[in-house]
């Protein structure tokens, strides 16, 4: 595996959104390996399967069947083996309470799924860039939301 | 002169007291007999008795009292007549400490007198304060010493009391009027107000002067003024009571509602005097009335809207009220009161009990008062059933007793019926399936997978549940598939059920192959479209039954065979009526019936004789319990060949069972044992009887058998007699008793044996000579009976013997002894009789006793009482019976016995004895009577004694002196005690000595008299005869009444007898009278009384000076009758004449009238007098006193008027008014109390006022009242009073203590005001408020719920709505990006428009979301610098601000108290709004100002005056708006421009407004087209 090839993991039950994300990645110049899972249960079993294959970044939708994004982040951030993986929330809505809670739970960024495809590309790119630039320090609350 | 008590001159006359004094036994008082009284006392008593006014004498050191009729009233009810003759110390013990020293002074000769002297007398059972004018004067005796006190007295208590009562009454009026909290005013006859009490002054805050005349009217509310004045003036015109309500201005500037009531006031002469009005404050009541009415209207509306029935039940009166809707449901009349039972009657029968119980429970305090029940009602008219849900609650008083139960009723018929049906059907199915004893398996019709299986099915299948449920049916029952698969499939296809009845089936159960028999059904279950969706298998296992049935068939056949072959009677009975199924020939023989007669017929029909012999019970028992019954030798009667025969049968009943173990018949097995039983019975019975007879006989009985007379049977008595043991049995008679050979008995026995004759012997002597040498002889009575065998041959002799030896001996002895007594008695010289037995039969009576009895000589053999019945009541017979019973002799000496002789009862005296006679056994069987008559001796002795006694008594006990003198020297032969006392000598000194030797001092006076007697033989009588006697060493003259009576012997005077009484005291008293009368006159003159005497015959009037003064004739004398009459008030003349007429009838004169003096002044006089009669009993003179009572009468008159005024005032008030003394005893109630309670003053006095207080309140009432009395604090209490009709009404009682100058409480004035209505209003109001609060809480709760739901709805919809929108945007942006080249220009445009639309919709959703959130979010206020918020906004809008060149102008920004995130949104929206509506050609300036000031500074109505507000204004120089839209712009979705011109959702400003309102602020907007807009926000300023 190419050393520079970043491994992204997207957890989203919406096939359209998964397609948009994939298109967006493909149109970027990064060398990226994208894995998608369709809900929280699949996500957790992927992360906990042996041998361990930890992604570099997890993009996590909140509103998923079986196990929600909120449940997943709590599990990830309380698991010693997984808590180092940055989790970027990727959701349709933007509820202030929810956002605050996620920030407290240890999410890296919060991306509200934008309508414009261009904007979508922009925010994903911004997130990946931050990672590449090793800039994934815990963000301030003000910079937590990545706006398109 | 004789010595009668009533004959003292000085005790004559004196009316009633005269009689008392004469009747009094004065010897028992210190004064002694009146004849011993000192002369001055006698005189004074005489004077006093004739006097018409009060006088009394306290005589001697003991102050012994005598008083006259005039004095009697002073002694009251308890002292008279006891005071007569006892000491003043005793009679007036309670005031003795006061008058003691005065009495002492008088006794020393100092007279004393006081006017209006106060004395606390206890003369009617209690201490009362009395006042007297009195004089105490000394009464001197002849020797100048003071012997006693004369008291002349007039009681002035009435006058004194009148004065005090008047004072008190005025005081009471004043304190009452001033002390009460009721507003009291007095108006005169010309309608001017003349008085207002303190309550008025306090209320109005004006001095009384301001209110007088019509001053009060200024304070009446202008709206009420004309109306009330009309009422007021109208009342004055009509002089009728008036009532009115009006408002009056109080000192706080508020109007208070008053209720005024006033009765007209009339003077005692009947003339109109004006009004007394009393007012009470009814403001609270008025307010409550209004509030209640409003709340009632609201409530009614609510009830109507909710389609509820309402009801109200009073458990005390059982009254039930309800609204019309409820009444319509219940079929109750609309406009009538109904009883609770009417409502209950309308309920469904099965619900009545339950509802009543629920009500009873709710009425229990412990239940919490909750009533919640569902029931049905059947309208009695329409018969329609309604199911209702009733809810309510009970109200309890302080005692936890329910006084009210009210609530609502809701029609729930439809819900309930639907619910019920659903529940029922569910319940049916559930029960049917799970509990069914039938196996049930429900499978899906398509897959044939079993879904529901019950326990019974599992049991029949014999497979575990998990092997059936959820499994393909034929997998489970593979072994049956071949047989029934087709059938099952057909059921699914056709929808018709398949039945299999008791089919044999091979099934693998519990792992084993088993053959079972089952009945089962495949039943199709269809849906509403008639498709078979399920198949139910119903299965019932019959294996056991089938197998049992088979077995039974075999065994029954065997049984029948066995029965028919059996060597004894056997039959089988079946069914409830025991039909004979089979019976073998022995059975038929036993019953005496043929087979046709019994087969298949109930045994009780074929053999009816069995019915009454308990057979059915035996059979039933076996049939019911299965227990075998067996018995031997049971006697049963059978009708055999037409004859009823008794058979003895050994038999048994056995239960027969069917395959299931149920009893289905009885087998009867029997064996006839009649012949054996009967034979045995006969033998046993006779043998047994015979032996018992012999063994138990007391007397010897034995049987001798055969020629040898062998002893075969004998009893113990015989053994004893013969002195042998039981071994004698079996031995010959002669061997046992060889001595009998020589005696006739042996031959007799043989005779009986040979010839069969019976022999009887009576008192026959037999000699016994026993082998041990004993020899004895006994007398016998005996019977020898021949003993015959059954064939009639004589085989022995039966002997019965009775030993009568003792009787024979005894009789002989008695005969001997009786003979000897008889001889003794006959020859005795004194009376002897013998009475035998209880009846006292005379068995012996000698001539002497018969002479005494005097009843002739034919007495022997008759009973003693029959001969002498007159002794019955003289204890004689009891004495005889006693002797007979006890055996003890009775002796009497000198006993009087009355005997009837010659038809006359005569007394005799006897010494007599009753002696018992004993029979041989020592029992007394008779009584011997011996007597000696002592009658003559006894009578002689008694006569002597009596005569002596009479003589002694007559002399010794004579009440006067008696002495007998004899001979020429007048030697005293005897002298009684009284005589010796008179001469002060002892018997020894006097008797046996010559008279003049003992009493030399009388010789001069007496000797000529005695000499005369001796000479003439004529008795000498002396009357008040003075005799000088030496008494106590002094010779003084004493006065005597006496008689000297000559005594003759043989016509020669040998002596004389003296009878004498002393009258010294009487004589001396007479002497004193004149002297004392003079003294009395002086005393009377000195007193206030006028004394007069009117002689009716001469028509002369003698009057004292004082009398004339009182009548107004000062200085004049000798007034004529006419003159006096002329001075009397003409109106009172009639009164006086009537009094005189009455006086002639009753002896006593008393009247009070007015006299007119010459100066025309009017004076009241009180006259008392007494009529005295001459010897012809004609009225002779009138003696009287006269007193001036003007002052007293005037006081009384005033008092009456005052009292009248007070009572009228108090009684006119509708409130209850009462007063109490400082100790808390209520002593006055106004008329209102009596009217209200219906009690009379006597009833209240008797049982106390507490009786009208509700029993539940009385304890607390008492406590509070006692507390008030003890502490002096105002009394304020709410309690219920009982009205005359039994109703209790709430009263507010208040009592205020009235204090004197020293601050001590003099009395309490209390009022009680009826507050029933207020109390009820308050209660009702509280209830309403509580109800309303509950409703409100419920609504709030509902609202919160709805809000929450709405919130989550909004959240979900905003989120879920956004997603497809976002995708539309993304997809369209993708198309525009990737397919741009392929699109036409039109296509590109349309895509753009689509994107914009989606974008707008997204904004709209987000704004709506924000708007909804402003409602509900938690309100967390914090104080924030407005700079921070604006900085935040600038940051958010940074890009836009930079792009559009916007200038912010911030002035005086301050701290604000806000919900931060909301306020941020607010400013953001306003800024956005400014940006949106900025002018294109001009840079936008946004100006934000801030100021803090008090609310009223802003000139905005809604901002309260004193509170501080923060005013934030945001203004711009944008396009502005027309002012008319200044309100509209804040409404949701209101836009002033098209979407194309200015984007926006039309929600932004609505959110702004909402946020401001969340902050309890207001927002306004002003604008001008093309000039700009300003938004002004006012929110409460932070507390600093």
Task: Give a description of the structure.
The complex is a heterodimer of chains A (148) and B (1584). The termini of chain A are far apart. Chain A contains five helices and six strands, in the order βαβαβαβαβαβ. Chain A has helices at 15-26, 40-48, 69-78, 96-105, 117-132, and strands at residues 6-11, 32-37, 57-60, 87-91, 109-112, 145-146. In chain B, the strands form twelve sheets. In chain B, strands 6, 7, 8, 9, 10 and 11 form a six-stranded antiparallel β-sheet that branches. Chain B has a six-stranded antiparallel β-sheet with strand order 14-13-12-17-16-15, sandwiched between helices. In chain B, strands 2-1-5-4-3 form a five-stranded antiparallel β-sheet, with helices on both faces. The radius of gyration of chain B is 68 Å and the shape is flat. The model of chain B is unreliable at 1-6 (pLDDT under 50). Chains A and B meet through helix 1 and helix 5 of A and helix 44 and helix 45 of B.
**Biggest interface and which pair forms it?**
A-B, 17 and 20 residues
Give a quick account of the main beta sheet of chain A: strands, pairing sense, barrel closure: 6 strands, parallel
How helical, in percent, are the residues of chain B? 25-40%
Gyration radius of chain A (Cα, Å) is 14 Å
Q: Roughly how many Å apart are the termini of chain B? A: 127 Å
What low-confidence regions of chain A span 5 or more consecutive residues with pLDDT below 50?
none
How many distinct beta strands of chain B? 59
Beta strands of chain A, count: 6
Mean pLDDT of chain B: 81
Tally of DSSP helical segments of chain A: 5
Tell me the β content of chain A. Answer: 15-25%
The average pLDDT value of chain A, as a whole number, equals 83
Q: What's the main sheet of chain B like?
A: 6 strands, antiparallel
The oligomeric state of the chains shown is heterodimer
Determine the number of helices of chain B (DSSP H or I, runs of at least 4 residues): 49
Biggest sheet strand line-up of chain A = 2-1-3-4-5-6
Proportion of β residues of chain B? 25-35%
Report the principal-axis shape of chain A.
globular
Sequence of secondary-structure elements of chain A: EHEHEHEHEHE
Helix content of chain A: 25-40%
